[in-house]
Design goal:
It contains 10 helices and 12 strands. It has helices at about 5-10, 60-80, 95-110, 160-170, 180-190, 195-200, 215-225, 240-245, 255-260, 275-285; strands at about 20-25, 30-35, 40-50, 80-90, 115-125, 130-140, 155, 205-210, 230, 265-270, 290-295, 300-305. The chain has 2 domains: about 5-140, PurM-like, N-terminal domain (60s Ribosomal Protein L30, Chain: A, 2-Layer Sandwich); about 145-305, Phosphoribosyl-aminoimidazole Synthetase, Chain A, domain 2 (Alpha-Beta Complex), CATH 3.90.650.10. Bound molecules: adenosine-5'-diphosphate and magnesium ion. The site of adenosine-5'-diphosphate (ADP) has 14 residues, from strand 4 and strand 5.
Amino acid sequence: MVSGEFNLINKYFLSSSNRKDVSLGIGDDCAIVSVPEGKQLAITTDTLIDGVHFPSNTSPEDIACKAIAVNLSDLASMGAEPAWLTLALSLPQVDESWIKSFSDSFRQWAEKYNVQLIGGDTTQGPLSITVQAMGLVDAENIMRRDCARPGDAIYVSGTLGDAAAGLKIVQQGQVVDANHAWLVDRLNRPQPRVELGMKVSAVCRCAIDISDGLAADLGHILEASKCGATVNIDRLPLSHQLVEYSTNRDEVDWEMVLSGGDDYELCLVVTPENDNKLMKIASELSLPLTRIGVIEEHRSFNIIDETGARYLLDKAGYEHFT
Ligand code: ADP
Ligand code: MG
């Protein structure tokens, strides 16, 4: 890397947060961190590419927020406590005002979740942002995709389909009221359910974060756990903003709710006896948790409406290579 780029890193990416478990942060060939006795390291990475993972007119502040959020959402789904980040940035040119806005927002969101940026890479190329997030987890509290069992209840946090509606609004360029603005915010500034993941990991063995739509992501759990599920479409939690955007609940686009991407809510699979404990956690966090269905032994995935009739999806979720 040339010295100009090094100045850029010093100027914009040296973190203000100083976690005690970071012995060496940005500046050397590697960062050095300490994993506490008894903890295990959870590691994940996600790339955001201009025009693929965010619309090209997304602000640098929102891109930074989303780059962190999508990674912390993966940690949340495993029950891990976020600790450290690395950032590989590919920038088409050195636009200092863009970099300043991006790095200010990045720092702000990192501080909010008490994660420290400890290294990265800066290159010239099409705009792309890769964040790696590392977190700490107790071995006995890890939530995995392959631990669902027949009879378990299926829950989701928050509301579904908001970000997909937000994307539609951005693509059609029609932000006209507060509901629209809120839905676009759900697309651009997802809130990773970090606290929820950490808390429920005491009572839940199986979870996934919903990044490609409930149908596809719950599908991953069913595949890994070798079982099936029934989900009631009338139980799916919707925001009043989405309902109003759609005119009323009967007019809601269920494809958007079940297969739209970018929800970043958690889907939890829990033995039914733990319902009370889950509801207590939900109320402590002021975050709705909704029971939407049940895990079945038979390996089919049924989405049913209020009459019990099967709802057939056109597409199961966002796939990159189709
Ligand atoms: P090397 O040449 O050894 O790969 P670099 O010169 O690329 O190292 O980077 C110098 C230091 O700056 C390293 O500690 C690296 O982790 C850090 N760094 C580079 N780019 C970024 C970035 N975008 N965000 C955070 N740290 C970065
Ligand atoms: Mg390098």
